[in-house]
Amino acid sequence: MPQILRIGPYSIYFWSNEGDPLEPIHVHVSEGRASATATKIWITSTGKTILSNNNSKIPEKILKRLMRMIEANSSDIIDEWLNRFGEIRYFC
């Protein structure tokens, strides 16, 4: 899976097949290796984040920090999504 960021032990990445039709822009987060049951975080058109699920069971304090880091890097993440998938849809 294409890793976008690494923050400590956490990988932030896109899943290689994001659906057909393409899902709204989001990243997956897991500790260590990529997982099909990873935490999913949506990215809005303004660069804010919305937690879809916390399947990785990341502690809340750490999850909030990770979400702030994703927001701080949202323009780069959005650019990478566009380069990889060729189109962008937003959750809201």
Structural features, described:
This protein has 92 residues and is an alpha+beta fold. The chain has one domain (3-85). 27% of the residues lie in helices and 27% in strands. The chain is built from 2 helices and 5 strands; from the N terminus they run βββββαα. It has helices spanning 60-72, 74-85, and strands at residues 3-7, 10-13, 26-31, 39-43, 49-53. Strands 1-2-3-4-5 form a 5-stranded antiparallel β-sheet, with helices on one face. A hairpin with a 7-residue loop joins β3 (26-31) and β4. It is globular, with a radius of gyration of 12 Å. The model has no long low-confidence stretch (mean pLDDT 91).
Shape: globular
Overall average pLDDT: 91
- Major sheet attributes: 5 strands, antiparallel
Strand arrangement in the largest pleated sheet: 1-2-3-4-5
Count of helical regions: 2
* Terminal-residue CA separation: 25 Å
Number of domains: 1
Task: Work out the number of β strands.
Answer: 5
Low-confidence stretches: none
DSSP helix fraction: 25-40%
Estimated structural class? alpha+beta
Please tell me how large the radius of gyration is: 12 Å
Strand content: 25-35%
Order of helices and strands: EEEEEHH
Protein name: DUF4160 domain-containing protein
Pfam family, one: DUF4160
